[in-house]
Specification:
Elements (H helix, E strand, L loop, with lengths): L4 E6 L6 H14 L6 E6 L5 H7 L6 E5 L16 H6 L4 E4 L2 H6 L4 H13 L3 E6 L3 H5 L3 H15 L2 H4 L3 E4 L13 H26 L2 E4 L7 H5 L6 E4 L6 H12 L4
Parallel strand pairs: 1-2, 1-8, 2-3, 3-4, 4-5, 5-6, 6-7, 7-8
The protein binds 2-phosphoglycolic acid.
2-phosphoglycolic acid (PGA) binds next to strand 8.
Amino acid sequence: MARKKIVAGNWKMNKTLTEARSLVEEVLKNNPADNKVCKIIFPPFLFLSELNVLLTGREDVFTGAQNCHTLDAGAYTGETSAQAIASVGASYVLVGHSERRQYFHENSEVLKSKLDAVYRNGLIPVYCIGEVLAERKQSVHFQVVARQLADVCAHISPEHAARLILAYEPVWAIGTGETATPQQAEEMHAFIRKELKQLHGERMAEQCQILYGGSCNASNAAELFACPNVDGGLIGGASLKVEDFTAIIQAACSVPV
Ligand code: PGA
């Protein structure tokens, strides 16, 4: 069975409510409902509820949160739980984004607890992995990614593994304008799938959607998405502009299945 492509927009800490609404309205207008590509929008928490109202009736567009707390409730001022995220109709949560690892010191133990929270609340994680520039320069990128993967896979049950989405995001490509070449992306994605096979078996490895992230844009998306092991993209900067995001969705739609 072919894996469905996913185009996900990670808005990070951008947009006001008015801008968020109008971006989503434009994206919906430019991309009539289709079943070929799953679209996910990761806005700031604050807008999830309101944007979900705009998505009523669209079975091909979903929302997700960029982060969540490890616990479902409690005295943690300023935090948001996966339970609260699920309650406003969001379906996905980003876990392990390199900006969370770097700026908010999220280590693998914290990330595993966050994954537990996501699964516990019936949400789907998009788990980010990837090497930093120094690791690629030292040619240890495969080892780094294998370690990140083994760590997360050892933690989750086969049942949860079947609902895992991965995003390979080489940290040197995030927000830098420097994209991995399609060859580099395909090589790593094929490697990830091979590792998954060892860790969770052939069926899980074949079904797992692995997104590419890192300066994916309107001009390079088609080539990246045409790679057999690249199942779509996690898009930062280019998801903030309706024309660019639409072009990326169209690129995913036009890949032959
Ligand atoms: P970028 O971000 O597309 O702006 O490089 C990707 C991401 O951080 O998920």
